[in-house]
Structure formats: C-alpha cells, structure tokens
Amino acid sequence: HLSMLGFSGTGNLARVTSPTLTSPTLTSPTLTAPVIGGAENWLFTVGAGGVTASTLCKTDTSFNIVAVTTSDSGAYGVCPTTAVSGTTNYAVARYGQQAVLADGSTTIGDMAAISTTNAGYVHDLGQTASSNVPVTQRIIGVFKTAAAASGQTAIVDLTPAHFGSGTTLSGAGQGYVAPFGDIAYQAAGVTFTAGDSEAWEFVCCTTGVSITVNTIGIPIFTPQASSNVAAAIYTGPLSPATLRASTNGCASTSGGPVFCSLTSPYTLTEGTIYWVVISTDTANLTLAEEASTQLSLQLMLNQALNARQGKCANSVTWTSGVPTWPSSCTGTGLSNVGAHRSPQIVFLP
C-alpha cells in the first residue's frame, strides 16, 4: 500500500520506464600541426626613435628597445613589427627563426652579421663556419632562406650573442692587413692639406691568404669641423699607378677610427704590391701614428729612386663631401717624402 510509504491521492499509477538512449556520433577534431622553429620573444618598451619591422634592434641605457645603426657592433634581436616610441609590452625576437631585411643577396647556411650599409639590416658574411670568422666579428645568426637582393627579407636562425672563433688568416675574406713597418710621410705630424692624396705602399698578405676587403679604417687624431676623409687602393710595382677601389667621403669631425666602406668589395691577393691612398677635403686634419720607429727602417723605405710613400702629384677633387679619385695618382711621381711614421690604417673584410 502506498499509504504506508507516505503517498496519498487518487488516480492511476503509471510504471516508469527507462528512456531509450541513442549513442551520439563522435566527430574527431581537426588537429593543426604546431609551428616549429618560431622565435623566442622578450617584452620591452620601445625607446626613442621607434623601431621598424623586420630590422635588428638593441637595448639602450634604460633597457628600452631601439633601432640598430650601421656603426653598431651588436644587436639584441629582431623587431618583427613597426612601433613608435613608448609602446609597451613590445615583443622582440631574441632566439629562434625570424625574418630580417638583408642588405643584399644571401645564401642558405651562411652566417649573418649587422649591415654596415643599411641600418638594421643583416649582411651575408660568406662563411658557413665560425672558425673562418674573426673573433672580433659578432655573428647574428645563420641564414635559413635566401634573399635575392637588398631590401628583401631572409629567415635567420638567431644567435645574437655569438662571435667568430677564427684567430688566424686561413682563407679569403678574413682578418686584417696593415702597411708593413714604419713608412715615411710627407710632413711631420701627418698633417693633410685639402685635396691631398697621400700614399703608402704595402704588400698583401700572409702566406696562403687573399682577403676580400669591404672597409678601410682610418685613424683620426686631430679632427676638423665639417671635414670628410676617404681612402683608395691602387696597384703598381713602383708607384700607385692604377686605381682599383675607393670609398666615398666619411665624416671625420671627431677623433678615433673612421671606418669607410668601399663602393665595391676588392680582393687583395697574396704577394701583390698595393698602395693605400688617403685624402681629405679639409686642411689641418691629422692621422694617428705609430708610437715608435727605427731610423734604419725609415731610411731603407725612403729611397729617392723608388719612394715607398709620399704625396701623389694628382690630387683628389672633392665636391660636397664626395671625392673624385684620379685614375693614377703618380703624375711625375711621389713627392715630399720624409722620415715620419705611418698611420695605423687597417683593412677589414
């Protein structure tokens, strides 16, 4: 009796049956393959000047992220998007693979460095092993894709804290070359007059090595306001007879090294006699010299019939900071040969 269970009322009692269960159809989800090889990002506030998409960037003294310049030796990573100063939580690609603008064609597997011609771009070092890159050269990463021309992007596997490990010259495109020994000069204190073209002879290179030069370093000791300096490479067994490569004008308004890029890379060949010629558009600019010298060596180099140094008869024409180099700087030969030390000029690959 239901009354015994606490139920009361009238009507029919219905039997409750279990509902019919229909098995649902399970559809497998579509799985998207994860992106492999992406960049590891770090967040920053964008500093003064803002940043441009697909260019190298660095941190300033306040640890804000700012653009890399052509004179910078290092970079923190790649700025993937354009952003204005003050942007917060801006993601910078530090490691991994990221697209970067290149200053020319690139080859897959070659190492990438900071461009000295296009701010924030990368440059192909033409080397696949860090042992073939000087220890002073910072390596930004390795090219994973190829760019066909300047202004195109290439994927770089970033290693921005990496340096070359090469300590000796072992192949083309490596190391440094300086004129051999103390070389006489036209005037005490290594002082220029405007339009001078001053020449020093040197022989390339160490045994078994030829060097592709991209940059010539010129040491400024006494700068001049609004001044420019430039360098050229000539060949000739007895005098600087034939122009081979040259730089445009580079500002020399402050002391220290000025690094001028050649208009086109030039290869110095082992055992060949070369002449480096320096010119400026402003009088009284001076170059830094060697600290000591040997008089016997100077006298040996200062041969009247075969001068190894001196002032070219043909001067350089300067127009608005741009030099026009003579095809031959000998004319009637080198003049004003003196017994003074050579400047510390270096050639950089």
Mean pLDDT: 75
Please summarize the sheet with the most strands: 6 strands, antiparallel
Q: Order the strands across the largest sheet as they lie in space.
A: 1-5-9-8-6-7
* Spans where pLDDT lies below 50 across 5 or more residues: 26-37, 167-189, 290-305, 337-341
Distance between the termini: 106 Å
- Number of DSSP strand runs: 21
Task: Give a written overview of the molecule.
The strands form five sheets. The protein has a six-stranded antiparallel beta sheet, with no helix packed on it. It starts with 39 loop residues before the first strand and ends with a strand. The protein is mostly beta strands and 349 residues long. About 16% of the residues have low confidence. It contains one helix and 21 strands. A hairpin with a 6-residue loop joins strand 12 and strand 13. The longest helix is centred in the last third of the chain and has 7 residues.
SSE blueprint and pairings:
Elements: E1 40-44, E2 55-59, E3 65-67, E4 77-79, E5 90-101, E6 111-114, E7 122-124, E8 138-143, E9 153-163, E10 198-203, E11 211-222, E12 228-235, E13 242-246, E14 250-251, E15 256-268, E16 273-280, E17 286-287, H1 295-301, E18 309-311, E19 317-319, E20 322-324, E21 346-348
Antiparallel strand pairs: 1-5, 2-3, 2-4, 5-9, 6-7, 6-8, 8-9, 10-16, 10-18, 11-15, 11-17, 11-21, 12-13, 12-14, 12-16, 19-20
What's the short version?
The protein is an all-beta fold and 349 residues long. It has one helix spanning 295-301, and strands spanning 40-44, 55-59, 65-67, 77-79, 90-101, 111-114, 122-124, 138-143, 153-163, 198-203, 211-222, 228-235, 242-246, 250-251, 256-268, 273-280, 286-287, 309-311, 317-319, 322-324, 346-348.
